Structures are given as C-alpha cells and as structure tokens.
C-alpha cells in the first residue's frame, strides 16, 4: 500500500531530478532512494520517471502526481501547524498575477482577509491582459483561466465559475432573436490572450461595438449604457461580478450559460517554501469561498 512516506520520497526526487541530490534531503543513500522509487512504481503499476544519465525526469503522469502530492504536502503542513497552535504570521512581500476579472472582483476581498490575519505581510496584485510569466519572476504565483501546458510549474485547480449574458435591468430581452441589433460589449478580438476568454464564439456574435481588454471596463460600459433604454448594450459577464453592478441583470440564462475555471499556478522551485505554501493554501480556500459567496448573491 502506498504511504505518505513513499510520496515524500517521490516528491524529493521529482524536485531534485536526481537520486544523488534527493538522497541528502531524505537522509538516505542514493541506492535506497532508487529502490524506493522502483518499489513505488511497481506498486502503482505506472512509470513516474524517465531515467537517463542526466537524471530523473517526470513522465506526464508523474508530473500530475507531483502536483497532487505537493498540494497534499502543503495542506498537511498547514494542518500540523493548526494542530500545534502555531500562530506564526506571514511576513514580507508576495505578488499574485491574475486576469482582470479575478484581480478586480475576487482578489481584493480575499487578500484583505489574508492581510488582516497577517498584518506584516505585503500583498501585491498584478493585473495584466496576458498570461503572467512566472519563469521571469513577474509574480510569486498566478491565477489563470487555462491549465499551463509548458514550464516547470505546479498547477492546482481553484474552482469553476459561471458567466451569463447581462443587460440593463430595463432591457427587454426574452429570446436570442431579441439580440439582433443590440450593441455588444466584449473583448478586443485581437487582444484575447486565452481561448477561454473568447466568449463571443459561444454567443454566436460577429463582432463588438464596445470593446476593451479589461473585464472591469466592459462591466462599467454596460452599467453606463443602463441609462440609455433606447439603445441598451449586452455582454458576457462573470456571475461573481454582478453584485458589483446593481444596474445589470442576467438574461437568456438557459440559452447562454458558460462555465470556466481558475487555476493557481506556481513555479516548481517554490514548492519547498513553507511561507508560500501557507499563503497558497489560504489563497486557494479564500478564492473558492468568495466565488461561491458572490455567485449565491445573484442565484
């Protein structure tokens, strides 16, 4: 039966990419570490590493297993701290990169709560209309809307979230046919940096009459149009953003309903940082709770 101690050995080799480099961390000799990895692969019936003279490289399955094991390690560390009554607070600076929607409508509340528990911690929110480059250390961790497919990164799914077509509350939109002639608010087409943000493809619209690379600007444009009942605008809006826009309502919910996901992405070399692990656990749980809370307000 696979035990946590096996996962500890697996994680050490995955991080060190070498038996000889993992051995002193584990306080074992390299031969023993190698036997433990061979035994683990045998028990699971899978290949976790590609062995070569250059070291141990993770297979695709091994990389996925590493991410789950690292998440479990972080959660276990936090649980042990809480069980011991450890009240050590986070300090220093931590920067989070995020797309506009998360940066504007989720992270301020979540980070404020984390900051309240850790008054000596400086949290920076980096909102960019593109994918944050963790390899260049633009941020310590990032929220993304797609799971990265390249790079030495750890990826943890945070939560699904929902989006619907929104319009001013006075607008009379009861069918897809009512959308003809309506002004559409959306992304600047050639500045969509992730395929998951191409909402108009789901909507079947040919173009937009009011465009921005910022979700917050799109929401403000819809709010501004609420005063013009003769020429209302419509656009795809995150459900979690709607509590901040009381002039808007969801329309055609059965015809237009999208689901996307947020992922928490970190650089692989940061997995051994207890400080970042603790912050990531708090950020992950805080984001899940805040998405749920805001979506319930418009349910």
Automatic annotation (TrEMBL):
Annotated HTH lysR-type domain residues: 1-59
GO biological process, one term: DNA-templated transcription
Pfam entry (one): HTH_1
Keyword Transcription applies: yes
GO molecular function: DNA-binding transcription factor activity; sequence-specific DNA binding
Gene3D superfamilies in the cross-refs: Periplasmic binding protein-like II, Winged helix-like DNA-binding domain superfamily/Winged helix DNA-binding domain
Swiss-Prot/TrEMBL keywords: DNA-binding, Transcription, Transcription regulation
Top-level lineage group: Bacteria
Cited InterPro entries: LysR-type_TF_proteobact-type, LysR_HTH_N, LysR_subst-bd, WH-like_DNA-bd_sf, WH_DNA-bd_sf
Family: Belongs to the LysR transcriptional regulatory family.
Name by which UniProt lists this protein: Putative LysR family transcriptional regulator
């Amino acid at each position: 039966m696979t035990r946590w101690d096996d996962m500890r050995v697996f994680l050490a080799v995955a991080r060190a990419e070498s038996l000889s480099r993992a051995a002193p961390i584990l306080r074992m000799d390299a031969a023993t570490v190698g036997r433990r990895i061979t035994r683990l692969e045998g028990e699971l019936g899978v290949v976790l590493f590609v062995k070569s003279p250059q070291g141990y490289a993770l297979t695709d399955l091994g990389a996925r297993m590493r991410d789950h094991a690292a998440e479990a390690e972080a959660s276990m560390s936090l649980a042990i701290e809480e069980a011991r009554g450890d009240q050590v607070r986070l300090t220093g600076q931590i920067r989070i990169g995020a797309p506009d929607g998360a940066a504007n409508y989720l992270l301020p509340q979540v980070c404020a709560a984390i900051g309240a528990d850790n008054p000596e911690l400086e949290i920076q929110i980096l909102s960019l209309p593109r994918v944050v480059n963790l390899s260049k250390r633009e941020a310590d961790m990032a929220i993304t809307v797609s799971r990265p497919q390249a790079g030495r990164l750890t990826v943890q799914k945070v939560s699904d979230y929902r989006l619907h077509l929104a319009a001013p509350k006075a607008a009379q939109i009861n069918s897809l046919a009512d959308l003809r002639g309506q002004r559409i608010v959306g992304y600047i087409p050639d500045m969509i940096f992730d395929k998951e943000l191409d909402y108009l493809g789901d909507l079947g619209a040919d173009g937009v009459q009011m465009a921005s690379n910022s979700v917050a600007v799109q929401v403000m444009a819809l709010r501004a149009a609420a005063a013009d009942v003769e020429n209302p605008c419509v656009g795809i809006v995150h459900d979690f953003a709607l509590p901040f826009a009381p002039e808007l309502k969801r329309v055609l919910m059965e015809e237009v309903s999208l689901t996307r996901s947020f992922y928490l992405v970190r650089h692989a070399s940061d997995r051994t940082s207890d400080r970042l692990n603790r912050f990531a656990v708090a950020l992950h749980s805080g984001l899940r709770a805040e998405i749920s809370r805001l979506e319930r307000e418009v349910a």
